[in-house]
User: What shape does this take?
Amino acid sequence: MAVKPTVSSNACWMTSSSSLLPVANISVNVGGKDVSFNCLVDTGSERSYLCKGLIRKISMSSPMKSRRFLIKTFLGNKVRDLQEIDLRVKFQDESRQVSFLLDEHLDLSFKIEGLGGVISDLRKDEVKLAADFSCMKNDMLPVHGLIGIDVIKFLGPLQLTQFKDGFAFSLSQGMILFGDVSDFKSCFSVREQAGLNYNRVVGKFSSCNVTHVYFVLEPKSNHLDPWSCFDEAAVDRSIENMFNLETLGVTDEVCSSYDKIKIAAFRSSIEYRDGSYYVSLPWNLDKLNEVSSSYNVALAVLDKVVNKLSDKNLYSDYCKVFLDQENEGIIERIHVPHSEFAKYTWIPHRPVYKTESQCTTKIRPVFNCSLRMGGKPSLNDCAYTGVNLYTDMLELLFKFRTDTLVLLADIRKAFLIVKLKNEFDKNRFCFFLKLEDELICFRYSTLIFGFVSSPFILCYIVKYHVEKHAAGPCRDMLLNNFYVDNLVKTHQSQSELLKLYVEAVTTMEKSGFELKTCSSNSEIVSQHIQLDNNGSSHGMVCEKVLGYTYDPMLDEMKLSSGGVERIVSTKRDMLSVNSSIFDPLGLVLPITIKGKIMLSQVWKLGIGWDQAIPNDILSLWNSFQKSLKDIQNIGFNRCSVQNDLPVILIMFCDASDRAYGIVEYMYQ
Assistant: This one.
C-alpha cells in the first residue's frame, strides 16, 4: 500500500494529573442512527480518530477500508496500518462527511479525582457544557475519539473566555473546560455559610503591614491635602499637573488601536438577558495573576471598622447596607474555607459618612481597589480604564443655564445594575463582613464604585442601550445629557418636557436602570413624577446638580458646601481650602481669587508645605476665609438664556501682575 503522510499530535498526560483536557461531545450517523460520544479536542492534529470502544459498533454498520499512513507526532514518526471510515458528523445546522481513522490502541478516557463533584456543582449552576458528563463514573470520563482540525473547523469559532478561576472555549453547544480542575470548583452556595468564627479567623489571619491598613482607612482625600505622604518635590510636580491643558478640559483625545481592540472585545462580551446587561471586565491579563489576595489586610481593616462603628452604635446600620444589597442580588454569600482565602481577591472596605441633606443613606461602604502589596499591582492597575465617553461637565452646566424648564434625574444604584458575566470576575471582588459572631464571605455580582473601569463600563452600557432605540429627542437627550448617572435637561415646553420624562423612564427601565430622584420646576412634570413615585425621598427643597445646589421652587443655584471651615496654618492647608471650593462656572471667582493670590504670595516666599504661614498673610487669610462662609448663601438665577433665540455675546478681559480675568455676557 502507498504511504499517505498525515500529521497528528496525540495528547499525552499523567494518569495522576489534575488537568482537565478539552473535551466535546459530537454526534455521527451510523447505519441511519445517531451515535454520540465524547472526543478530545486537538487543534494540533490534522485528522480525527476513533478509539476501540466505538469500533465494534461502527464496523457492523459502515464500510471501512484499510490504508497505510505515516503518523508524525512530537514523539517521532511511525508507519501504521489503520482502517478509515467515512461518517456524517452533525453540526449545529448541518451535517458533513468526515473520514475518521480507527485506532484500536488509542485510549483517551481519563480520571481526575474530584471531577464528578465539580461537574455536579456546575449542573446546579445551570452551566451548559459541550461534553457529555452523564456517562462518567467514579470520576472517570469516557472519551472515545479525538477530533482534529478536519472536524474542529466546522464547530464554529472557539472563543477563549474566562470562566470561574480558569479558562474555557465557548461554543454555541456549551463550554469546553480545560486546565486544572480546581479552577472550576464551585465553593459557592447562596445564603449558605459553613460559619467561620470571626474572632478565631481574624486573630489568626489578619497579621499584615499596618501601613496597608491605614492606606485603606485613611486614604487620600478628594482635594490636595493627601500629599502629606510625599516629599516637597513630589508635591510641586503634582501642582504642575493642575495647570495641564488636559486638567483644564482641553484635550486632543484619539482612540488608539489598543483602545479599539479592548473596546471591541468588551462590546462582544455584552449580553442582555432577563432585563439586565451582563459584561466581562476588560482586564490586562498579563498583570492580573500578580495581584495579591490581600485577605489579611481585608480582615485587619474589617476588625478596625467593626470596633470603631460598634463604639458609635453604627455597625448595624453599616451591615444593613450590605444586607439590602444581598436582598437585591447585588452581592452573594460564598463559602470559602480559610485554607482557600488565597485563591480569591479580597477588597478591604471602610465606611464614609454623607452629611448632605439630599443623601438618604448617611453611612455607606467604600471599597479600595487600588491597594498594592509587596510591589505587586492592584486590581485597578490591571484593568483597562477605557476612553472618556462622558459629556463635558462644563458644557452640561452651560446647557443647564438655558431655557425656563428643568428636568433632573439620577440612575438608582447605577454601577450596581450592570452585572458581571462570569465567575472569574466575581472572584476578584470578594469581601468579609462580621454578622453576629461569624465571619461571612461575600462577593459582588455587579460593578462596584471604586473599580477604575466602572465609570467607562457604565457610560458605555447606557449608550449601548439607548442607541438601540429609534432616533428622536428622547434618544438624543439620553445620549448627550448624562454626566455619569446624573441626567440634566432643560426645555421651553412643559408638554414636550413631560413627554421626554415619560419616554426616558420607559426606555431606561428596559435595561434595568431606574430613573429616580427626579425633580422639575414644572408643576405638570412634578405632578407626574410624584404619581410615578420617582421623586426625591430626602425631603429637602434643594437638589444637587453637577456640584452645585439647585432650588427648583426659586429656579436658583448656589455653591455646595466645601471644606472652607478648615483651620489653616500652613501652605498645605491653604491649598486644600482653595481646592475644596467647586465652582467650574466661576460664579464667585471675584471672591475666591483672593485666596489664590495669597497662596501665590506664600509660594514666592519659598515656604515649605508644612511650615507656618507668616502672621501678616495669615491675618489676611483669616479675614478671607470668613467671607467664604457667606458665598454658600449667594443665589444665582439658573436661567440665563433661551436656546431658541439669538444671542449677542459680549466679552471683557483684563490682567494685572497678580491675576487675569475674563467675563462674558450673553444678551438676548
